[in-house]
Amino acid sequence: xxxxxxxxxxxxxxxxxxxxxxxxxxxxxxxxxxxxxxxxxxxxxxxxxxxxxxxxxxxxxxxxxxxxxxxxxxxxxxxxxxxxxxxxxxxxxxxxxxxxxxxxxxxxxxxxxxxxxxxxxxxxxxxxxxxxxxxxxxxxxxxxxxxxxxxxxxxxxxxxxxxxxxxxxxxxxxxxxxxxxxxxxxxxxxxxxxxxxxxxxxxxxxxxxxxxxxxxxxxxxxxxxxxxxxxxxxxxxxxxxxxxxxxxxxxxxxxxxxxxxxxxxxxxxxxxxxxxxxxxxxxxxxxxxxxxxxxxxxxxxxxxxxxxxxxxxxxxxxxxxxxxxxxxxxxxxxxxxxxxxxxxxxxxxxxxxxxxxxxxxxxxxxxxxxxxxxxxxxxxxxxxxxxxxxxxxxxxxxxxxxxxxxxxxxxxxxxxxxxxxxxxxxxxxxxxxxxxxxxxxxxxxxxxxxxxxxxxxxxxxxxxxxxxxxxxxxxxxxxxxxxxxxxxxxxxxxxxxxxxxxxxxxxxxxxxxxxxxxxxxxxxxxxxxxxxxxxxxxxxxxxxxxxxxxxxxxxxxxxxxxxxxxxxxxxx
Length: 572
Prior knowledge:
Distance between the termini: 48 Å
CATH superfamily of the largest domain: MFS general substrate transporter like domains
Radius of gyration: 24 Å
Shape: globular
């Protein structure tokens, strides 16, 4: 009989470390191991960038999975344990299903299955965090969280560097079995023996409030309202939204570009695995050092230095590649380039030092601007936005590599990575938090400002779309920006709909929901060429009418008083 690890302090630490290993494995596997193999198969940087970007999307929306995990129970398996077991089995099954997908011709189906795989990983993450919140004693949480993040780092090393180091022995197909077995080992020896007796006793209060999808919907609506009021409630929290949506410094060397260059420079899978492993270990050590320094020297001051440092390896690599004439992507399979391999090793290790210094400090500054009253909701939303920033960064960088080459993309990335510093000075703890208030007097003004900016961004689409061909190679990159605008406008409309319920005319609530869904559906413009010629006119009309209608509605919101955002209007 295997032991229930939740029954002892050391067992709990071991359990959550191991569970987080299964979260890191798929991220490392897709972003490093699979991306490397796709490049060897001749898949271009743009497709690989879109693949890696899509892989991070479920983590950007994991806040929506929380209510489902809370209210839908699997009594025989355990309230949280059941979700963990089912999701791990699904993760293993989807990995094994990938073995039947031919590459590179089946890349679309391959991406879709891996997207489902990572969605299961994101749901598992929500269940593991919920289990930790209900199981760990207050005095255990600090060390437990450190071990959990360490487990995720180990998992990424197993799924990325580990798979590449074993690729010569396993082959690409065998790597799927290896990763699936790693996940199932944790399922068998850790998840299955868990018993969550205390959680089941505490669950009756949750169950009494209702169940099923209706309750999940109410919780999602409450999440939207709490997050929206928290974001608008203070200058620091409002700046935090933009800070979270902007890249955390230069990011190209931490995403698919590293794998692309390794393949093109002639590195073997084992060499690429060793380089990635060295980067992971270096980053892990630097994370501890960076957080320690930020506690003593100040969060904003150290983060400013760390983010600036992250641009230096990218700029250096851009200069060296341009100097030797290595600009555009090269076909894989060429003769090894030892001097470029050594260059890549150097910049990857240096970059991981800088990125590691930044990582924990940036997370801590989000905690600084998070209001204690809605800490879980607000912090979860910030982390989701961080993942959205990773997703769109991977996408535009892949497009830029094929359009402009490696050096220019690295320069653009280095410059864009500094954009978050423009709002860093505003990232301060809310003054209202000391008195327990959620919002200050300027909260309605911030909501009107956000509505105005989003309305203008939607209107600018009306100029871009008809003239998009004139932007040349930059068209898909600009399109990535508009995708972010449409997602932001849709979420703003949905949150505003919930906040202003009862304070706006019925037509507003009736229009907000379909318009929000229409904005999200704007992503389908990628497949406009597949629309029958006779329907092209209608499709283009909808692509213009939807942002225009959203701009009108957002402009109307910019003129409202937003009284429910005032703290004295808070019903709680």
